[in-house]
Design a protein that fits this description.
The chain is an all-alpha fold. 81% of the residues lie in helices and 0% in strands. The chain folds into 2 domains: 183 residues, Up-down Bundle (Growth Hormone, Chain: A), CATH 1.20.1250; 196 residues, MFS general substrate transporter like domains (Growth Hormone, Chain: A). Its main location: membrane. It holds the Pfam family MFS_1.
């Protein structure tokens, strides 16, 4: 898995995830300061959180298509430069509208990341290892979320919240330069034409050429995207509102909150790193049942457990209980993190995997548009976070049922 330059690819993709979530979660850590300085309500803050996903969701699809057409290396290089630039640009914000504009542009820059990671993994690794590699590379994202609390919290308290965004902008620029210099689009010992044909037949036994629009209409793609939507709804709820929940509902100081938020992220890092390995283990163990059996087994079990934990987190009476349940929810949630992409790799041919993966990610990240704003509205109207926790859990339960019922191997009907 790590031979012949593949270890370098894994390392850089892992670090891209770290930078991505360091940038993305910085706003939620700095939210108490920003909300005070710019005089924002909870509903306005929720809209600002959601505005990121407007640009992000659209460019999930655009970035996936770009990775198929122009290559994953170039697409991710440009994406990193753009999102780092607009991460730093948040220091120019003077109010509600300027925050929205900057966050939409920032989201556009981050949008291509996951689809380009999936495309690079598809370029460099065989099917039997892809879920493991997707899990390992994406496990950098919760690690980035974990370190953002102490980093952003310390800088914000010591020097002001604006300086934290400038610091992480520079980190992104350094990554982009190194990525362009040291990483190739495909390995020198790229898969032979015969092996590519064999892999294509495993996905599509008939050998018939499927176009992009065919894949975009398939229930397997659409309901995998729905499950990913539920995943993202819980993730964005945690990513955007959990720090404010700890300060507002549990009475923690910003300093204590910055430390406490590390706990769920560390468990998320372990979950995402292990999720793909677990899936590939079952992939090999139940190979006769087909690849989707093992993917669904992990996805449904772990997403359901995540739903139960996040739902109960909203009704417990102690801070320790709430943090523990949220941490467990994030752990089980991230165990499924590689599975959505593995399903796309299992059922889509290589020439369309970036575009289809980007489309799935686009649909899934509509949750990032709806969820934070809806949560802010619920909190403003009810004065409590309880209903928001329960709603997140219920949505994931429905998604589990949909995966069991509708995710099947893709076959073209005559």
């Amino acid at each position: 898995m790590f031979s012949k330059g593949r270890g370098v690819v894994i390392l850089f993709l892992f670090l891209a995830g770290v930078v991505n979530y360091l940038d993305r979660s910085a706003l939620s850590i700095g939210a108490p300061f920003i909300r005070h300085d710019l005089t924002l309500t909870d509903t306005q803050m929720g809209i600002i959180f959601s505005s990121f996903s407007v640009g992000y969701a659209i460019f999930n699809f655009v970035g996936g298509m770009a990775s198929d057409k122009f290559g994953a290396k170039l697409t991710l290089f440009v994406a990193m430069i753009v999102w780092s630039l607009f991460s730093g640009a948040i220091v120019l914000a003077v109010g509600f509208i300027s925050m929205i504009v900057i966050r939409v542009l920032f989201g556009m820059g981050e949008g291509p990341l996951s689809a380009t990671i999936n495309k690079m993994v598809n370029n460099w690794f065989p099917p039997s290892n892809r879920a493991s590699v997707v899990g390992l590379t994406n496990s950098g994202t919760p690690l980035g979320g974990a370190i953002s609390g102490p980093i952003v919290g310390f800088i914000a308290i010591s020097f002001g919240w604006r300086y934290s965004f400038l610091a992480i902008m520079l980190i992104g620029f350094i990554w982009a330069i190194c990525w362009w210099k040291f990483v190739k689009e495909k390995p020198a010992d790229s898969v032979s034409p015969e092996a590519e044909i064999a892999a294509a037949k495993e996905i599509n036994p008939s050998g018939e050429k499927f176009n992009l629009t065919f894949y975009l209409k398939q229930k397997t793609v659409l309901f995998t995207a729905f499950a990913f939507f539920a995943y993202n709804y819980i993730l964005f709820f945690f990513l955007t509102w959990f720090p404010s929940y700890l300060v507002d509902a549990r009475g923690l100081s910003v300093k204590d909150m910055s430390v406490v938020t590390v706990i769920p992220w560390i468990l998320g890092f372990l979950g995402l790193a292990l999720g793909g390995i677990v899936s590939d283990f079952f992939y090999k163990k139940f190979i006769k049942k087909g690849p989707l059996f093992s993917r669904k087994l992990v996805l449904v079990t772990c997403l359901f457990l995540s739903a139960v934990c996040i739902g109960f987190a909203g009704v417990v009476t102690t801070t320790v209980g709430a943090v523990t349940l949220v941490a467990l929810s994030v752990f089980f949630l991230y165990l499924t993190g590689a599975i959505y992409w593995a399903i796309i790799n299992d059922v889509v041919d290589q020439s369309n995997v970036g575009s289809v993966g980007g489309f799935m990610h686009f649909l899934a990240n509509i949750a990032g548009i709806i969820g934070p704003t809806l949560t802010g509205y619920i909190v403003d109207k009810s004065g409590t976070y309880t209903a928001a926790f329960i709603l997140a859990g219920a949505l994931a339960v429905v998604a589990c049922i949909a995966v069991i019922r509708f995710v099947r191997p893709i076959m073209k009907v005559a």
